[in-house]
Amino acid sequence: MTDPEIQRFSDYLAAERGFSGHTSRAYLRDIAQFCGYLERGPAALASGDSDEAAEPRFDALRRASRNDIRAFLGHLRTLGASPRTAARKLSAIRAAYKFYVRAGIMEENPAQAVRSPKLPRDLPGVLSIPEVTALMEAPDTTTPLGKRDRAILETLYSSGVRCAELAGLTLDSIDLIGGTMVVLGKRKKERIAHLGNWALDALQAYLAARGTLGHPGHRRFFVNARGGPLTTRSVQRVVEKYVRAVLPGRRDVSPHTLRHTFATHMLNGGADLRVVQEMLGHESLSTTQIYTHVSVDRLKEVYRQAHPHA
To answer: Suppose 140 and one of 74, 88, 146, 223 were both cysteines; which one would form an S-S bond, judging by CB atoms 3.0 to 4.6 Å apart?
Structure first.
């Protein structure tokens, strides 16, 4: 039976924060692992007692101190957890304590003064324009599935939408005349995404063939060969299929790579950073600024190739 106070936090994540079921469960798993550590010590982490079946306990959270949280993060690192993993778990713990303090259930937030692990700044992988061209032209557009796959690739690159956002598109989401889409992003936040002419042509060609794919009786825009809604994992497989075919040396390419590529090519073309932020659906400009580092790398490369004294 779920702890009532934990259930209140879970309801808050879904109702007020707008988290998906997957994200909420991830938060609760991280908190359950912290509770296991509080109740059984470091052995709980080493033995794997805090598995997905474990449930967090509010009594354990209420007794924890700032030093307990720091020790928990330290033991995670000792066991080989990356700084990013430790930071993610701290984020879940912080969210829980912040909720309980705001709700008047607890007086102090022991996680407030705990500093997050310093994260390495990993620059996202980006495709060159010739690589993008090869990828876009890879599907066999004489077949309905080939038309669908071309539309998927063009839409990802043209709009910069996330994989899950693309899979969630409906027939009502896309305005082929106006060249826009209504996208449901993280935390169920809507935004307008824009489509270029190449993507619009590909989408129109796919839409004309959509009815031949299993005669779909639903409103989801992208469908599989049987007419069912296309899943996020299926979109990933589509991208991976054509990457293997035309970019065999690029094993790091995913749907998110096309999102990174969209942002970088926009900035390289002179787009304003805040415009790109809006298009990507980033709440914070600092999230978008990572793409300026990629663009600077490109500028340096051009300088080295073009300047006589470089």
So the answer is: 146
